[in-house]
């Protein structure tokens, strides 16, 4: 009897040991350790473990904050038609997920925004104290990104609802000032090189004065310096312990924002949501539209050269061109010329804008990675206030 009991105990112990050393489910491993340099999080969450992941996600996000800190400027782009959000780090797509935007009676505004406030737990001040966890505000009038229910179609009162896991990770990745662009259709940043953008080569003193009034034309650029951030929300922008190096410097830098408005015929500059200065400008053919373009410094490509990207807002939804249109029988519909690429339209806009040389020099000395230049036919929105970046609404 004793020998039989010993044998039973041994078999039980062996079975327990086997269970302990079996490798964990691979989908769970991928969830715990976010791969680098590719799309490292998205819609998919393994359903068998969904309840467990929801309980542990905030803790996992805190733990992974250091290793997944951005490598460069972040850009968040939301497509209303696709009901989708895309996140770009230093110009490269790193994450994508579905969203739910505003219904027709309460549409989500289109335009250029930035994160102006963050709260881990927030309740709506407008709609029956509705919960808005992991809220990232982009207007003081109530538009924000936050976790919520996604029925597969627009359903909010103007906010951008995100899947809970996605909202949690995004909240830990961003900081105040992160650029948010909302467009009718999907758009993306593209590389751009132009002689009319800032360059790092100092301009010779003997250069003719006539060449000094083109926007940012060969303006001298000081080496971008890392400046300490002024973070009003310590909980929102608290950095994970041990985060150092390039990602750390990008989180600490305070970039400038520049807007060139055809409507106002002026240029304005802000840093850390504070107005620095404004100047009048000249625009060739001022009656012709420029479009709306966001140029962003991605950081030094090599010694003496800055790398830029541009996002151009569509002037007309591309999907509208695909919608069947009634026409008179027997008549052919006019052929539609394909639109210019984002960089072509942006370069055309740059060529028409002229600013004083001294102002270009002053702006160049303030440039850091993440600094942006908005060119738009519009002025800045009424949402632009004393504690916001420039907000441009395009509808």
Outline the structure in words:
The protein has 395 residues and is α+β, with helices and mostly antiparallel strands. It folds into 2 domains: 28-183, L,D-transpeptidase catalytic domain-like (Beta Barrel), CATH 2.40.440; 191-320 and 340-393, no CATH class. The protein is built from 7 helices and 19 strands. Strands 5-6-7-8-3-2-1-9-4-19 form a 10-stranded mixed beta sheet, covered by helices on one side. β2 (84-89) and β3 form a beta hairpin. α3 (50-64) runs parallel beside α4 (164-173). It is globular, with a radius of gyration of 25 Å. Residues 16-38, 44-56, 200-244 and 320-336 have low confidence and may be disordered.
Count of discrete domains: 2
Reading the helices and strands in chain order gives HHHEEEEEEEEHEEHEEEEEEHEHEE
Shape descriptor reads: globular
> Average pLDDT value?
74
Radius of gyration based on Cα positions: 25 Å
**Helical content class:** 10-25%
Count of strand segments: 19
- Low-pLDDT sequence parts: 16-38, 44-56, 200-244, 320-336
**Count, helices:** 7
Largest sheet: 10 strands, mixed
Strands of the largest sheet, in order across it?
5-6-7-8-3-2-1-9-4-19
Oligomer: single chain
- End-to-end distance: 85 Å
Structural class: alpha+beta
Strand content: 15-25%
